[in-house]
Amino acid sequence: MADVTALTFLALCLPLAGALAAPFVIRFLGANGAWLLAAAPLFAFLHFLRLLPQVARGQTVTGGYAWVPSYNLSFSWFLDGLSLAFALLITGIGTLIVLYAGAYLRGHKDQGRFFSFIFLFMGAMLGIVVSDSFLMFFVFWELTSITSFLLIGFDHEREAARRAALQALVVTGGGGLCLLAGLLILWNMSGVTQMSQLIVSGDVLRESPLYLAALILVLGGAFTKSAQFPFHFWLPNAMEAPTPVSAYLHSATMVKAGVYLLMRLNPVMGATPAWEILLPFFGGLTLVVGTALAIRQTDLKLKLAHTTVSSLGLLVMLIGFGSDHAVEAAALYLVAHSLFKGALFMVAGIIDHETGTRDITRLGGLRRAMPLTWLIALAAAFSMAGLPPFFGFLAKEEIYTALAGGDIRAITFTAIAVFGNALMFAVAFAVALKPFLGQKVETPKSAHEAPVLLWLGPAALAVLGLVSAVFSTFTHAALSSPIAAAIRGTPVEITVSLAPHIGLPLILSLLTVSLGIGVYWQLDRARFWMAVFLRAAGRGPDHGFDLAVSGLVRFSARLIRVVQPGRLEIYVACTFLCLAAILIVPPIVYGELPRFPAWPADVRLHEGAVLLIAAFGLVAVLIARDRLTAIVSLGIQGFAVAVIFLLFGAPDLSFTQFMVETLSVVILALVMTRLKLSPADRRPFGRRLFDGSLALVCGLGFALLLLRATQAPFNNALTAFFNAYSKSIAHGANVVNVIIVDFRGTDTLGEIAVVAVTGLAILALIRIRAGTERKLAANDPDAVGAGE
């Protein structure tokens, strides 16, 4: 067990190690360094593959290390059928993507930086799917948003890439905040902070009055990350990233993080009316919107990106549908989609890399120049279209088995699934046939077969799509059934195979193929009419995002002009208004106003004289006709307060007060003489009345606070502590000095730093003023002193 824990921890850390090593490896080995870098995800893949038999038997693998035990926070992982399948997809496809990127970005000046980003993302995504701790899960969830921002904006010199990166970060980051709130509510509802404990909580979550709030917040995080309508627009725009990013983040990994979250929470949050209404509705809508938008596109990557949106919608629809077969269909389609979509994205990248274009209308006749690429594209397209003998066929058959029924709900979602799958059929073969068949079209680059590192990845995924279907019994036992069992929360045995499926599912499959062939045959006309319809429908959420961002910028600018007008007196007034509200309002609201004591009868003559001097100093400040007199009068009041401290047995405090008042008077007087200010206060009467009233209210607030504090029972615990330990621990007889320099030495250091910075700032102001005067004198001697 200790060996498994150590190896799992190493597997989780390897992508981060790869991120650190990538720039140096690429610098010394160039593009061939991809072979060495691929060893990191390959080791992790082999480790997780070794755990497959254990998990297939229904066991789970847990482990981790305590982080903050007092708060029950840990760096812990939980591997069951679902999380292990995702871990295998992330590391397995990640290995192929690293090799693919080595050839695709060969010679790129920032290839090392790219590999660092892709490894950081790999580590973050791996952290999401294996995390047991809520905190660990959320940290990695946000890291995927940050790293995807870096990857989408990799070509940061292009405005479109910067916009797409920012859009993805804003949408998924906002969803992450919703998820954080949802996780906190789940913690409050269940009292646990680990996924492994949460998914066995039974009906605790479903019966809680906070269930709906938690569900909406969790869906906010899942829908934004997995590009569900109306948040779908960021994913196609993310195709501004290099093709290896599109093939990895936006088909097989990141965009499925939201799907993973919904699958993980299905045992404890599913099977409720809200779950079975919201998920199928938004999933079905996303399926229809994604496939419709895909038909319109001519860019290969954009066509595939929109079908990724539709596939994610199909997965969400199946998760929320509620039946056992729907869960099994979701498990099968999860694997099938990762295989065929990753392969097709890499094929699109190969075509772009070798011909110089991805526009399907500018491609044709590539089958002779790129026969291996065409074969790979056909295999992946067959799986995407749901045709035998590929794994996509098994998924599609199970989808129709799950959705087919006689009630209106089943009929509606079956029709949606048939429509979406038919359009995906047409798109799949548009990608696999249009660029390769027909007459040879001249392309910007002379087409030829891709090097081995480019076709190795898509070929491996296409072959896996075939082998996993041919040996479906083994695939289900090792992978599909454990995934479905984790989603449903009970043991599952999937039996669908390549054998003929007589009945309604077969009829629906034949209908899908017929409609798909019809759309493919009339693809240009379908693209035209879809463009007409979308033009008539108006601008969509993508334009709405731009409006929201520009509106936010305008609102922020106006708000800044109000709250930051550039006038110091407004800032000071707002500060003291808040201070007055804090001091006055709570005592009144909570009935904590102090009792006003009677004037003490034992005030001695010299004490009264000092108080009288302080009062005279205050009056002198108020009636002073110029600023310098007011500063000196303020010093008189401060010195009187220092004497009061001395009379009442606080010599250290008195000394500090004397020093502060002396420095304040000297510094303020120096500043007043050096800066060209009006000698007297020229504020209008209304302003002076407001400022005076505010000052009185603040003074009254502090007086009430001090009175309330002195009337509370005195707790001498700190006094006893300092008296007991100042000598024995700090070796000082003066308790006050020990407190200042030892017990709160860091605080004292901060105060000294503040005083030092203030002094430097004042010196800088004086030097700036002196330098300005010298320049004015040099240019125009008569101008010096003109403003006095």
From TrEMBL:
Query: GO CC annotation: what is one?
Result: plasma membrane
Pfam families hit by this protein: MbhD, MbhE, Proton_antipo_M, Proton_antipo_N
Any one GO BP annotation for this protein: monoatomic ion transport
Q: Where's the NADH:quinone oxidoreductase/Mrp antiporter transmembrane domain?
A: 131-408
Q: Where is the MrpA C-terminal/MbhD domain?
A: 613-676
Q: Which residues form the MrpA C-terminal/MbhE domain?
A: 687-767
**What is its membrane topology?**
Multi-pass membrane protein
Q: Which residues cross the membrane?
A: 31-49, 85-105, 112-129, 166-190, 210-235, 277-295, 304-323, 329-351, 372-391, 411-433, 453-478, 498-521, 568-588, 608-624, 631-649, 655-677, 689-707, 748-766
- Where would you find this protein in the cell? Cell membrane; Membrane
In the UniProt record, does the keyword Oxidoreductase occur? Answer: no
Keywords assigned by UniProt, alphabetized: Antiport, Cell membrane, Ion transport, Membrane, Transmembrane, Transmembrane helix, Transport
Recorded GO terms, molecular function? antiporter activity
Q: What range(s) does the NADH-Ubiquinone oxidoreductase (complex I) chain 5 N-terminal domain occupy?
A: 69-115
Q: Tell me the PANTHER family matching this sequence.
A: NA(+)/H(+) ANTIPORTER SUBUNIT (PTHR43373), NA(+)_H(+) ANTIPORTER SUBUNIT A (PTHR43373:SF1)
This protein is called: Na(+)/H(+) antiporter subunit A
